[in-house]
UniProtKB/TrEMBL annotation:
It catalyses: Exonucleolytic cleavage in the 3'- to 5'-direction to yield nucleoside 5'-phosphates. This is Ribonuclease R. It is found in: Cytoplasm. It comes from Christiangramia sediminicola. Keywords: Cytoplasm, Exonuclease, Hydrolase, Nuclease, RNA-binding. The gene is rnr. 3'-5' exoribonuclease that releases 5'-nucleoside monophosphates and is involved in maturation of structured RNAs.
């Protein structure tokens, strides 16, 4: 009896949806119950009675309008909203709209040809009490992307492309005349053309053949193409860049502050090719120091409205993959004219500060300069000077392949700047800044770009020295503009407060390792976070805790409305120091000069749109960089398939356990279905899986031994076989 009632309710639920669909698709027209029945193709008395009842119910709930007795219509804009579709890997999705606190659920049958990230119009069905709102996509307003990466499955005179992106719920049909020379099994880029109403799959055309899946260049180009990132400059852009006058001429020098005689140097990674920042140092008669942060004057060469500027804006950022850099600017600028190379004069944009011995800023000056770099140091060389206090650089540290001596003035500059940087950093920490010194995973690559080793990069004093002075310049430039009255349009780097729920979840997880967080207020939260990050250094859970702590933070973004920077504890912050690789820094340079010249406030809407684009491109670049690291990790582990590794459980889900190998930080999954010694069930509260028969548990943070089961380069996925808990394996 109960089963029958449930079926009837389901029929009535479908009837509501069908009636609304008919009225919505014929907005403005009125229908009576007979016309609805005709459209639905029913003519029996029972169905007509259900329609009459349902029309009355929908009108009572004000979902439809009874314009005159027995005649109904739906208001044109009622229950229609706009939002962005977020698709899951299971084929359904959610749309966040401003008018609703919760996301609107969209079933796969109601996606109506929309893809992940599309801006869509949705119709929201009235929410029942204590239930989420369901919706249906009625119109695609803007496609986030029209190109996708996948593998061609060729038939006789047509083909299908199976898309790599896990959120894509359909393949693409490719007609024979649109294969563009692609062959069965090729990795390709397919462009969406249309999705006819009665077709099972969207129609597309192949625009580029990337190569054979699994091959190195194919996979790297696939990563770039997946995120719509370019891998080379258009010929006309290269030609334009090569014709730019990059000479250091007297006419331009005369317009600038000449700082060529002031001691100046760069500190960068040893393999860096573009040096976009330099420091100058000199003692003043009053005992204070004049310290200049000199940044490549990219905006001098990159003029608005040119094809070069349009290309740089479109890219918005350089992309740093494991084996290559995809630069924002052509090489003539990024590695030559704008690179502050040693023993060369360069045009720069500078922030110059008078700083006392306690690291307090006494005076500041911003403007265009011409500088000369006296020396170039790698971080390792500067670190050696800091640690020894001497200028003798040994061969094993030197980037010159031989030992050499640094003159005393440079040694004094590096040592003094380091001392001041430490005081500045201590002040930031006291003000509530959070110290994220996450370990970076790096690869030793051979000539074929195959990973032959893994090493870790940690920030030392030399890195932190540069970081502090770049932070100083960024903060002071933002303050200089942000505090002006009347308010002026500017580009800020914004970072909101963390989500309380995420912090509470982090507190629960780290509690399993004996750590505590105090979330009483901002001060206790930041100080206990810093203590946590300090306490886990060198411990098995460090990388996992570092990663989880970063994930609790809000995502930083560019915007014209200043909200401050939570992580740095700055009320004003911007990006001024890397215009070779970030377009927002170029915008900041232009705006700063604009206001130094006394001009009126720039157009806010224009810059907000540019900020939004820059934030989006930054996110895409970050995802591509992450994917390239994962690809290299999988490639590295391919050569270690029969070896045993000690790892730490870094994640637990209903379908498997994630394990991060301690010695190389490669992460893979042990699927629960492959754990044959018992039937394991997921316990979300305990962050563990527990054997039903034996009670054996595997919990977040446990150390386990694993072996590589499968390393899939195409899916960029590692599968592990579980060998057992550390204690059990080592005991045997």
């Amino acid at each position: 009896m109960k089963k029958k009632k449930k079926t009837k309710n389901k029929i009535q639920g479908n009837l509501s949806r069908s009636i609304i669909d008919i009225l919505r698709n014929n907005s403005g027209k009125t229908y009576n119950y007979k016309q609805i029945a005709s459209v639905l193709g029913v003519n029996d008395a029972s169905s007509r009675n259900q329609i009459i009842k349902k029309l009355a119910q929908l009108a009572a709930k004000k979902e439809i309008q009874e314009v005159e007795r027995g005649k109904f219509k739906i208001e044109g804009n009622k229950n229609y909203y706009t939002g962005v579709l977020d698709l899951t890997t299971k084929g359904y999705g959610y749309v966040m709209v401003e008018e609703f606190a919760d996301d609107i659920f969209i079933a796969q049958k109601d996606l109506n040809a929309a893809f992940d990230g599309d801006t869509v119009e949705i119709y929201v069905y009235n929410r029942r009490r204590r239930k989420r709102s369901d919706g249906e996509i009625t119109k695609i307003l803007k496609r986030k992307r029209t190109e996708f990466v996948g593998t061609l499955q060729q038939k006789k005179d047509f083909g299908f492309v199976v898309i790599d992106d896990k959120s894509m719920y359909t393949d693409f049909f490719i007609a024979g005349n649109k294969l563009n020379g692609a062959e069965n099994g090729d990795k390709v880029v397919v462009e969406f053309e249309e999705w006819p109403k009665k077709a099972d799959s969207p129609y597309g055309k192949i625009t580029r053949v990337l190569g054979t899946p699994g091959e190195h260049h194919t996979e790297i180009h696939s990563i770039l193409a997946q995120y719509g990132l370019p891998h080379e400059f258009p010929e006309e852009v290269e030609e334009y860049a090569n014709k730019i006058d990059t000479s250091i001429n007297e006419k331009e020098i005369s317009k600038r502050r000449d700082m060529r005689d002031v001691l100046t140097f760069t500190i960068d990674p040893k393999d860096a090719k573009d040096f976009d920042d330099a420091l100058s140092f000199q003692k003043l008669e009053n005992g204070n120091y004049e310290i200049g942060i000199h940044i490549a004057d990219v905006s001098h060469y990159l003029q608005p409205g040119t094809i070069l500027d349009e290309e740089a804006y479109d890219r918005a950022t350089s992309v740093y993959l494991v084996d290559r850099v995809v630069p924002m600017l052509p090489e003539i600028l990024s590695n030559n004219a704008c690179s502050l190379r040693p023993k060369e004069e360069k045009f720069t944009f500078s922030a110059v500060f008078e700083i006392d011995d306690k690291a307090n800023v006494k005076n500041q000056w911003f403007g265009r300069t011409v500088t000369y770099s006296d020396e170039r140091f790698a971080y390792e060389e500067a670190q050696h000077i800091i640690e020894t206090g001497t200028g003798t650089i040994p061969e094993d540290v030197s980037i010159r392949n031989h030992s050499y001596s640094v003159r005393g003035a440079l040694v004094e500059a590096v040592v003094t700047l380091n001392r001041l940087a430490k005081k500045m950093r201590a002040g930031r920490m006291k003000d509530g800044a959070i110290s994220f010194d996450k370990v970076e995973v790096k690869f030793n690559l051979n000539e074929e770009n195959n990973p032959v080793g893994v090493f870790f990069k940690t920030a030392k004093d030399a890195n932190k020295l540069i970081e502090e002075f770049m932070l100083l310049a960024n903060r002071k430039v933002a303050e200089y503009i942000g505090k002006q009255s009347p308010k002026k349009t500017f580009v800020y780097r914004c970072h909101d407060e963390p989500d309380d729920q995420k912090l509470a979840s982090l507190q629960t997880i780290v509690g399993r390792f004996g750590h505590k967080l105090n979330l009483k207020d901002r001060s206790t939260t930041t100080s206990s976070l810093n203590k946590l990050l300090e306490d886990v250094q060198g411990r098995k859970e460090q990388n996992m805790v570092d990663t989880l702590a970063i994930r609790t933070m809000s995502k930083a973004y560019y915007g014209v409305e200043n909200i401050g920077h939570y992580g740095l504890a700055f009320d004003y912050y911007t990006h001024f120091t890397s215009p070779i690789r970030r377009y927002p820094d170029v915008m900041v340079h232009r705006l700063l000069q604009h206001y130094l010249d006394g001009a009126k406030s720039a157009n806010e809407e224009e810059y907000e749109a540019k900020c939004h684009h820059s934030s989006e491109m930054e996110n895409l670049a970050t995802n591509a960089e992450r994917d390239s690291i994962k690809y290299m990790q999988v490639k590295f582990m391919q050569d270690h398939e029969n070896e045993e590794f000690l790892g730490v459980i870094s994640g637990v889900t209903e379908w498997g356990i994630f394990v991060e190998i301690i010695e190389n930080k490669c992460e893979g999954m042990i699927r629960l279905r492959d754990m044959n010694d018992d039937h394991y069930e997921f316990n979300a509260d305990e962050f563990s899986v527990i054997g039903k028969r034996t009670g054996q548990s595997y919990t977040l943070g446990d150390e386990v031994y694993v072996k590589v089961k499968n390393a899939d380069l195409v899916k960029r996925h590692l599968d592990f076989t579980l060998l057992g808990n550390r204690e059990e394996v080592e005991a045997n």
